[in-house]
Amino acid sequence: MRTSYAMLSWVGLSIGLLIGTGGRPIHGQNSRPSELLVENQEAKQTVGQPAASPVRKPAGQPSRPGSVRNIILMIGDGMGPPQLGLLEMYAHRAPNSVVPDRTPAIERMMAEGTLGLMRTEPHGVLVTDSAAAATQLATGQPAGSEMVGTNYQGNAATNLVEIAHRLGKSAGLVTDTRITHATPAGFAAHQPHRTMENEVALDYLDNQVDVLLGGGLRNWIPQAASDPTSATAMGIRQLVGDRFSFSSKRKDNRNLLLEARARYQLVFDRQMLAQVQSGRVLGLFANSEMQDALTEHALAAGDQRTQPTMVGMAAKAIALLAQNERGFFLMIEGGQIDWAGHNSDVGNLLHELLQFDDVVRYVDHWASGRDDTLLIVTADHETGSFGFSYSGSPLPRPRRLAGDVFQGRDFQPDFNFAPLAVLDKIYGQKKSYFQIFKQFDALPAKKRTAEQLLALVNEALEFDITLDDAIDILARMRNRQYAEGHRYLNTRTVPRIHDFSEFYIFGEFSRMNLLGRAVAAQQNVVWGSGTHTSTPVVLVAKGPGANRFGGMHHSTEIGQRMIELLRGE
Amino acid sequence: MRTSYAMLSWVGLSIGLLIGTGGRPIHGQNSRPSELLVENQEAKQTVGQPAASPVRKPAGQPSRPGSVRNIILMIGDGMGPPQLGLLEMYAHRAPNSVVPDRTPAIERMMAEGTLGLMRTEPHGVLVTDSAAAATQLATGQPAGSEMVGTNYQGNAATNLVEIAHRLGKSAGLVTDTRITHATPAGFAAHQPHRTMENEVALDYLDNQVDVLLGGGLRNWIPQAASDPTSATAMGIRQLVGDRFSFSSKRKDNRNLLLEARARYQLVFDRQMLAQVQSGRVLGLFANSEMQDALTEHALAAGDQRTQPTMVGMAAKAIALLAQNERGFFLMIEGGQIDWAGHNSDVGNLLHELLQFDDVVRYVDHWASGRDDTLLIVTADHETGSFGFSYSGSPLPRPRRLAGDVFQGRDFQPDFNFAPLAVLDKIYGQKKSYFQIFKQFDALPAKKRTAEQLLALVNEALEFDITLDDAIDILARMRNRQYAEGHRYLNTRTVPRIHDFSEFYIFGEFSRMNLLGRAVAAQQNVVWGSGTHTSTPVVLVAKGPGANRFGGMHHSTEIGQRMIELLRGE
Predict the structure, then answer these.
(1) pLDDT at B56 over 80
(2) A377: nearest Cα among A331, A321, A316, A322
(3) What is the DSSP letter of A281?
(4) Which of A124, A464, A564, B69 is deepest in the core (most CB within 10 A)?
């Protein structure tokens, strides 16, 4: 029964999609006059000044010079000061830096905008996860750990997307992870726990978020879709084509694509996204996360890629949202910066940062051409306690220097302070650690040997590991943090992390951290943790209202200020 | 012969000191009219505007409103963003925070001044040591690793102290490490390597640095002083009293105290320092480093302390330097923040940060009362790749929440996100790891057991270690980085660090890092390295010219801007 219902649905849906429903009006325009009226009244009451004129103005003209029509919030997930440092160091010091003018876009923003620092801890603890961090930014209210759009007392907290809508503005979320993942979820959903991504998807539809672009089809399709022989699966295959394989994570047979299609254009690849010219859009470009930045950069040369780039998604989101003359709120997440940090994968981390910085460059350029858009670039926390660091080997050789002070003495530092060439070698990585282990785990059991791992790693990295390293990476130990029924800590054995093992909690993923350790000395790279740290993050603001974000603030204060500015306060 | 010369010297010197030579004029005042004339001319030529009037004005009145008369540079050595985060987190979130208004002074400065970020890497490498870092700040020129006041080509680079003097201003250096240590040395000496502290002391005298306050008597006294039965040693004992024991690190029998006394008041404890009312002063309050902040804080209650506090040194330095109506340059270093980071000692790190922040509070208050002083607070690098981090144990228990979203579901995060109570326990540490191991190493050989270490640690910390932990801390391994004749890597075995061992390079000191690892999970603390990282550091500027320090800069640019401002450009 589930199947036939699904199949039936899919016939209508896929036809509608393939011919393109196009151009449905997005929130805040003429679609829902009665709602709009209410919103205008609310806006007037809240703002305490004339609401934006209901008469349509040409896009790009602010209601009031220097006031905030649009807010674009860009979050580098896990992009703490050390990660910014990696981007900076690569841009300025890599012998073959690919960064235009050797200056990251975020550094340019710092020169022209306002620099701030942000504490990120949730209620009652020192370290945040991404859900609580996003919630605090999105609502201005303190959240408990792992809560989504919920304050620490357990109540739904009004978020920036909802506030934008009440003001007649549009709202969008863009990410390279699943669109229902913790960071975007904090901005438009209310759930007790970040793992409830199926419910988050429903919240998005209830909230009518105007632009939703990212990965994560798996939380939108019926459970039955997981059986590839089912009619449901065939219906979805018709729609998604061979772009990517899928299976469902839902526990029901609700087909959220079907539920969405009355109000959304549904797109699944970059060509379909390119065709959207106006209206609401739900773009799901992968079953789970989108491709990592290493893959995006590798594919950029050719034309085989089906997924849009991060810049492509950001550009389309802005183009659509900016059609609402009342303005918009847009959150763009570089979500895999965090994942590279969790995995001690510095090569992928660098590429993720470069990718995110390219988006900053695009968005900053767009916003700089107008005086009505506040752009904020920040992070939700630091991941990995990462750093370049100096070591005891190999020791530098003595060198002669011409200068007066060195007559009679060679220049020979006591330690290895990290040659600049490591930056190019880090950039030269061909595959993320995640992809390496995905490939390894896909091998038949008897081929999953240290020798095979060695070959895979040394093919992908410009830093060689030895067979002993590979053996160490595959070594196991008793899980001292074993917890029955726990989502992550439920295995009796785990990869063998010697020191700080309590901070490596993601089971088999810790093999990636061991790979990170194996090449650490060659890279002059250190990692303190497999999770997050509470190190304050950098925030840059540019545009109207930017001066409210200088100095040190807590993320709830940043959220409050964004809300005030969006309201015209 | 060496002895009798030394004894002879000491008789005159100690008499002169004990009765107090007091009030010798300091640089830029009336002592050296011919030099001053030259300096005035230079100042005129360089500045391109009228030099400060030679007529004495009441202190506190600037030559020109809003121009920079004084620059005070405060360097938290190793105080990267994670260390600032520790201070912030303790101030705001510790249940029993001792920070006034729960707001660090440096945070207040951020709200009122200009916030910047600084890259710190020296020439040709990614990670800096403190000498190259200080050199770049002090001279605006790129330095090689471990160089002191020397650019990367090996030439002496003019520093802020010399520039101040040329302008008729006074100059001072204050630190809680040895006054000849890397950071202060970079501001007033020119040597090929930071270890040449004996030569640095001579450079200070040549440069006539007006105020020198810190530890490190050992580089100023003749080699013969190391023999406690020598007349030289007796002479020095007469002077220093029982305040601290001493031995020399000099390779000659030059007595720099004797050489200094014609121009400096020499002081060795806080009472002597208090008596200095004007003129040049050389204060050496310990044979090597001064007491750590834990000790300063413990002694603050009683009146047994002989050393001045950091605030006391800063206050006296400012009081003396501000008597020069042409103004001054002062560098104040919180040097043991770095050491606590090297030692993975979070309790001492917190106390060092609180101590430094108290100095910031004092200096900011002083500078805020005038409009002629630029105050810059920053760091030279990050140390330790430190962070609070979340772990897999102990797991939080489920809790009921009243809020709507949690009806039918308990609040139970998946991980240990670090309870706030760890902050108070960290603050409650009684002794630094360095002092614990000093005590341990002073035991007779057969008493240096794991049991004894266990007792010492558990007496000093509010986090308990087990006997197994103590055994692990004392375990050894082959030194894989052994290097014959190397200053640090010359032992065949070292304490057994499993992971990232290449970054633990200070021999027996690594036992402290192992202690840090043993309590890490209880503290929710991680450490990535035993050395420094290249993470950009925070910079806060307040006062005239502060707006030149916003955004991201390299340390050489910061140095150049300070030089420009000091010159009135």
Answers:
(1) no
(2) A331
(3) E
(4) B69
**Six token digits for residue B335:** 């040097």
CA distance B523 to B422: 6
Average pLDDT, chain B: 90
Can you give the pLDDT at residue B23?
40
Burial class (CB in 10 A: 0-12, 13-18, 19+), B121: buried
Grouping H, G, I as helix, E, B as strand and the rest as coil, residue A472 is helix
Question: Cβ separation of A121 and B93 shorter than 8 Å?
Answer: yes
**Chain A: residue whose CA lies nearest to B194:** A413
**Residue B91: pLDDT above 90?**
yes
B447 pLDDT higher than 60: yes
Interface probe with B: pick from A383, A526, A542, most Cβ of B within 10 Å: A526
pLDDT in tens, B297-335: 988 766 678 999 999 999 999 999 999 999 999 999 999
Residue type, A319: A
A499, A549, A556: which to substitute to probe chain B, counting the most B Cβ within 10 Å?
Answer: A499
Contacts of A409 in chain B (CB under 8 A): 192-193
What integer is the mean pLDDT of B82-108? Answer: 98
- Taking residue A298's Cβ as centre, other Cβ atoms within 10 Å add up to 15
How many A/B residue pairs have CB atoms within 8 Å?
A: 354
Question: Cβ contacts (< 8 Å) between B386 and chain A: which residues?
Answer: 385, 528
CA distance A459 to A472: 18
- For the whole model, what pTM was predicted? 0.90
Q: So what's the pLDDT on residue A30?
A: 37
- Here the ipTM equals 0.90
The minimum CA-CA distance between B35 and chain A, rounded to whole Å, is 26
Strand partners, B267: B283
> Cβ contacts (< 8 Å) between A115 and chain B: which residues?
115-117, 550-551
Give dist(CA A197, CA A180) in Å, integer.
Answer: 5
> Confidence band (pLDDT; 50, 70, 90) for A300?
confident
> Span A46-56, mean pLDDT?
32
Find chain A residues with C-beta within 8 A of B190's C-beta.
405
How is residue B71 written in tokens? 């620059």
